[in-house]
Each structure stands twice: as structure tokens, then as C-alpha cells.
Design a protein that fits this description.
Elements lengths: L2 E4 L12 H16 L4 E4 L6 H5 L4 H9 L3 H4 L10 H24 L8 E3 L20 H11 L5 E5 L6 H7 L5 E7 L12 E5 L6 H10 L9 E5 L16 H17 L4 E4 L11 H14 L10
Parallel strand pairs: 1-2, 1-3, 3-8, 4-5, 4-7, 5-6, 7-8
Helix pairs in contact: 1-10, 5-6, 8-9, 9-10
Bound molecules: zinc ion.
Length: about 300
Amino acid sequence: MTVSIFYSPSFNDIPDSFDTFTKADEVAKLIQGLNNSSLALCEPRTATSAELQGVHDQDYLDALLTGLPLDLAISNGIGWYEGLLAAVSASTGGLRDAALEALASKADPDVATCNTGSLSSGLHHARYEHGSGYCTINGLVVAARAALAAGAKRVLILDLDAHCGGGTAELIEGLDGVEQLDISVNSFDFYTSREDAHLTVVGNSSSYLDTIAEQLGAIHQPEGIDLILYNAGMDPHEHASGMSGITTDMMSQRESMVFEFARQHDIPVAFTLAGGYTGHGLTLEEVAQLHMLTVLAACAPFARVSS
Ligand SMILES: [Zn+2]
């Protein structure tokens, strides 16, 4: 089984870049350096205007294109650059393509279910009318909508980034077939849980993994899920801007737990990098190494094999 990892240098084609963009290049380098035949870097198709318009207000998209009005164009908290919209459209297209390929594997009885990924970041805080918290376009919701259009009946957005996915929660409200399970360690972008968007903010590192296990175990009829979109932020890690006591070993256990849960229920996972930052004790390569825990956990095969 080959795990397709969608990536393009266009994800980071902006001047004066920042972790949210630059780490895609670093993770891609690590993947290339592995020479692992189970991993294939694939060039995605960029997200279309229609896909972006399905999730965001036109005035906001115009601001991302032109830089005006400036307060709207810089609402992601990173700044505005010529080419920003093109870069985030490429990155959004990566997760959309990952979602569609993973979903197609589940639908085809002749192939094994397979996981995919995209080296995209900066998605889950973006709202209908503006960006937020380093997030510009909500690629999770773009990808979920594409999966529904391709025939998925039930898409789970699993958000284990350190911060809450309030942007996603806003955008999926009333969107039949999409639900979110969100376990955070920081209350930024907090929202009140609903039936289709469940949030837990963990208060202590010692209960982090147990809480994730409990929440995964509480998912209603997981065998009915067609696709998991996994926002696999590494920022819960104590040295990647997260919570004291959350170690690399715990993050590795988290990734094993998530992909094992999916395998048990024969659900394909399309993951995306999400948070994880330098400046808290880790270099960019060390942050990228943390994200490799997700990439490698995605490679373990499903039980169902090709007939
Ligand atoms: Zn985060």
C-alpha cells in the first residue's frame, strides 16, 4: 500500500514566510530522505474559486487576492502577501485531493482502504468572513464538502491540534454529513459543544491520551464513517508551544491510537499537519520530525487487502 502525501512548493510560495508555511517544505524533505516506497509525494490540483466560495464570503476572498481592505486581508494574523491566496489555494487543494483519494479507496471493493495526507497547515480557525489564528482558508471544510459531493455520507473531522477548532465548528453547523470531534489543550477558539461538534479542553497532560481514547471510544457507530479528516497538530507537544508534560513519546502514542482506531473500523484517514511551532525549544527540522510521527503512523496497512 502506498500512502499519497500531497505537497507542492506552491504551498510556501510567499515571501517572508513563517512556520505555518515553511514546515511543509521541511516535512517533504524528510519524506524524500526516507526513500520509503510506501510514501509517495503527489502534486495536488489547486482549490478552485468555486470551492473557496462554498466556504468563505466573497468579500474576504477578494481581500486575500488584493490585500484590501487591509484589516480583512491580514485577519489570519500572519500578514498579507501578493500570492497569499494562490499559496493557500494550493495547500487547500492538497487536503481536498487527499480526502478524495482516501474516500475513493474505501468505496472501491477491489482495493485496500488507504490513508493519505497533505502537508497543509493553517486551516481550522478560519471562519466564513475572515481568517484567524494563522489560518486563512478552512481547508478542512473545503475537503469535507468535496467528500460529500463525491458521495460520502458521513465525514468526521478529528481535530487534535492544541487549539480549539471554532472556525470549523462555525462552518459545519447545519452541514449534514459532517461532524467534528475536537480535543484541545488550549482554549483559544473555544466553542460550546453541539451534537455535531464536540469539544473537550484537556487541563492536564496526564489525562491527555486517556481523554482522546475515551472520546474516540464514545463515537456513535464509527463503522458508518466514510472518511476521517485528521487535523494532526503537533502543537500539544510541550516544546512546540503546547502543554508541559506532553512528550514526543505521548505524541507518538497519540498517532498510533488514531490510526489504529481508523483501521479497526476500516475508515480511511486524510491527515493534515496543522499546528506545531519553533520558538519553544524546537528547530524547524525538529518540528518537522514531530509531524513525521503522523506520516509514519499513516503507513501501517489496513487489514482488508486487495482481492
Ligand atoms: Zn494550534
